Amino acid sequence: MYSEKVMDHFTNPRNVGEIENPDGVGQVGNPSCGDIMKITLRVEDNVIKDIKFKTFGCGAAVATSSMVTEMAMGKTIEEALQITNKSVAEALEGLPPAKMHCSNLAADALKAAIEDYLKKQNA
Amino acid sequence: MRKVYFDHSATTPVDPAVAEEMMKYLTEHFGNPSSIHAFGREARKAVEKARQQVATAIGASSVGEIAFTGTGTEADNMAIRGVAYANRHKGNHIITSAVEHSAVLNCCKQLEREGFSVTVLPPDQYGRVTAQQVADAITDKTILITIMHANNEIGTIMPIKEISEVARERKIIFHTDAVQSVGKIHVNVDELGVDLLTLSGHKIYGPKGVGAMYIRKGTFWHPIMFGGGQERRRRPGTENVAGIVGLGKAVELATQRMHADAERLSKYRDRIISKVLEKIPHTILTGHPKERLPNHVSFCFRFIEGESMLLMLDMKGIAISSGSACTSGSLEPSHVLTAIGLSKEVAHGSLRLTMGKDNTEEDVEYFLETLPPIIERLRAMSPLSEGCNPCACSTCTVHEEDHHHDHGEIEEEF
Ligand SMILES: Cc1ncc(COP(=O)(O)O)c(C=O)c1O
Ligand code: FES
């Protein structure tokens, strides 16, 4: 059902956890299935220096969370905002059609974390 | 790696002795049971022998009360719709429960669209409905009561005898889906007091794609399929001879094995229940603690999701299942888990373990060793934990209802 890449990220998820005193926090719930994801960021000079996730969800949710953190790490805020659920799914060599919605969760959580960071910057 | 199959409520392997019987009717004795020649007669003999085996296993007084069907689902449809259509002149009301298999629930929903009125009884926290609830729901329009014998997801056994007494007294036809109970606990149509009962081959080491409907003599019923004269016109179509032979043999073997298996497996079951509850905090046993199938264990582990658990156990060679929304295809949590009052979030962490005749004590110990670290790992990865629910205080509104519940619980604890 899942690609090797998905199983790899599910089995050995990258960047699990929570950053203490993060510069940005994003937490979203998936309205289709009820899953929850939380992303914390540390940003220096507009670059994502560290990023961690926590996920309450299926295998695809864990794998997309892990992938999204890997993709965002080291990117500038502007670059990271370009990451979409589609690009996450593609990086994972595809998801089963019934699991496409899980990738929304990861992209949305990242976006929420970045927005939180930007809001704090402007405050 | 050790391979442990703990998903016998989903399906079972065909017993080699059953497969051996079946093979002969695929190759050598391939005749059509309706044919008059020797080939046909050989096949007919086999079908009738299987009918006797099923009748004996469930205590039917005559072989004429057994009709073979394509699946358990088809048998449920035949029983329910057959009674509904045949008794429409008397009334249009059907009583069922919220924890039925979808073969029953969706069949009742369809009848609702066709103008029948259906009462779906809510179960208690263990998944049981009472005879009193049934009695209270009966109207002068009630023509059918359909309540399952044992639940596939949470293993709970329904008080069928008590319910059938109510049905008898009010002269209402009573059907029970016994797909999960046959071969695991004692099933006798007279003792249970049912008018119709359905069973399926692949849950009892028989083949998939064959089932049976018991219908008590004198029960007012119409066929729902039309064609040739097979199965006394109850289920037209050339018989699945090999499948029927397999079902007959399987039900016979299951009955012989039942007591020994139940004694052994219920010890494993109770050990798993007590060990898991002891080792893993925030665990809820789903289904009835005592009135449950001897091979059936089911839990909800809070703060984690079932599919992740299932995948991790699968990587360790253990096959189980879950009623989590993420595993359901529809993305809704199991209707059984929500019917017994579990929140969406708790239902998310559901696990069902169903043992079978070939499972050993070593399998049980292996599971008990393997599970706790998996739960721990997933919990470490989860944004939820006791008293801390990030999305309750932020942008996420998905679990709003659940979280009120959470906070309530925690306030009580302190
Ligand atoms: C309680 C119950 N009823 C009916 C069925 C359907 O049986 P079948 O798979 O033969 O259609 C099942 C099997 O999943 C079941 O568990
Ligand atoms: S996140 Fe629930 S199905 Fe994937």
Keywords:
heterodimer; A: Sufe protein. Chain: A; 5 helices; 46% helix; 20% strand; globular; B: Aspartate Aminotransferase, domain 1; 2 domains; seven-stranded mixed β-sheet; 12 strands; 13% strand; binds pyridoxal-5'-phosphate; binds FE2/S2 (inorganic) cluster; transferase (chain B); PyrdxlP-dep_Trfase_small (chain B); Cys_deSase_NifS_bac/arc (chain B); Cysteine_dSase (chain B)
Please report the total strand number of chain A as a whole number. Answer: 3
Globally, the shape of chain A reads: globular
CATH class of the largest domain in chain B: Alpha Beta
CATH superfamily of the largest domain in chain B: Type I PLP-dependent aspartate aminotransferase-like (Major domain)
Using CB atoms under 8 Å apart, which protein chain pair has the greatest interface? A-B, 29 and 30 residues
Average pLDDT score of chain A: 93
Q: Could you tell me the number of beta strands of chain B?
A: 12
Number of helices of chain B: 13
Low-confidence stretches of chain A: none
Q: Classify the oligomer.
A: heterodimer
* Distance between the amino and carboxyl termini of chain B: 45 Å
Classify the helix fraction of chain B into a percent range.
40-55%
Ligands in the model, by name, code or SMILES, are: pyridoxal-5'-phosphate, FE2/S2 (inorganic) cluster
User: What is the name of the CATH class of chain A?
Assistant: Alpha Beta
Task: Based on the coordinates given, report the CATH architecture of the largest domain in chain B.
Answer: 3-Layer(aba) Sandwich
Query: Which value, in Å, is the CA radius of gyration of chain A?
Result: 13 Å
Mean pLDDT across all residues of chain B, rounded? 93
Helix/sheet category of chain A: alpha+beta
